[in-house]
Amino acid sequence: MPEVEIRPGVRMAYEDHWFGKPWTTPETVVMVHGNCESSRAWAPWVPHLAGKYRVIRLDLPGFGASPAPATYGWSAAELAADLGRFLDALAIARCHLIAAKYGGSVAMQLASDQPQRLLSLCLCGSPVRGSGSGNADAIRSKGVRQWAAETMRSRLGRAASEAQIKWWTDELMGKTDPRAAFGASSARIDMDLEGRLPRITAPTLIVTTQESGLQSVEAVKQYARRIPDARVVVLPGDSFHIAAVEPDLCAQHALQFMAQASKKRP
């Protein structure tokens, strides 16, 4: 994977795909993964997106192929600032931003801090508030892989196959740097993005499920009402990581939404 130094001591790896007509210049989609994941989480989306958009999947600091800086804190604010620096390093002035789970929280922080950078925002199972110390405590006491194994079914839901459960446990989340996993889980405990939502000016698509264990449909609709131009899509199921369990369906919703957002721009 190529990588870029975005500030002293912080490097980010990424994948960059564009399979459309090489003589054209597409809009860019940037994809941000959740805690204990990497750019690999988005792989099933790429065939849907990369014929119409340049698709950049990054590894946040400490995850995937991006090294963990010695003094990193993994707060939404720090990650969002570095996401902005990543866009600067790749000379991306504006983009469509697609994010899941804690990556969506980071995306909301960036969208409120630098609203001019986004063409649209798509959030899949992303919280605006912290959810207590349970994850951080479990990672500290049991280790990343055991924590992932014990929580994977509730994360991916009843519809996920045993093969997907095993891959996400053993090949993706279970291999996460323990310091990054614990750091991001700890940073989320007291997170509160509610006051920032009115500053998100990009057209925003929020995808959730009917029985998400992360937050109720009403809770999602309540925070969506604080975003000036937001739409909520509720899909069947009980996964709170719907981007992973229904990548084809989610990608189609994202494609339609991004196309509509592009048409609305002056």
Structural summary, described in words:
This protein has 266 residues and is α/β, with parallel strands linked by helices. The protein has one domain: Alpha/Beta hydrolase fold, catalytic domain (Rossmann fold, 3-Layer(aba) Sandwich), CATH 3.40.50.1820. It has helices spanning 46-49, 76-89, 102-113, 134-142, 144-156, 162-172, 178-187, 217-224, 242-245, 247-264; strands at residues 3-7, 10-17, 28-32, 54-58, 95-100, 118-124, 204-209, 230-235. It has an eight-stranded mixed sheet, sandwiched between helices. Strand 7, helix 8 (217-224) and strand 8 form a beta-alpha-beta unit.
* First-to-last CA distance: 36 Å
Task: Catalogue the unreliable spans.
Answer: none
Q: Give the biggest beta sheet.
A: 8 strands, mixed
Number of domains: 1
Total of DSSP H or I helical runs spanning 4+ residues: 10
The gist of it:
With 266 residues, the protein is an alpha/beta fold. It contains ten helices and eight strands.
Topology:
Blueprint: E1 3-7, E2 10-17, E3 28-32, H1 46-49, E4 54-58, H2 76-89, E5 95-100, H3 102-113, E6 118-124, H4 134-142, H5 144-156, H6 162-172, H7 178-187, E7 204-209, H8 217-224, E8 230-235, H9 242-245, H10 247-264
Helix pairs in contact: 2-3, 4-5, 4-7, 5-6
Keywords, please?
8 strands, alpha/beta, 10 helices, about 20% strand, 8-stranded mixed β-sheet
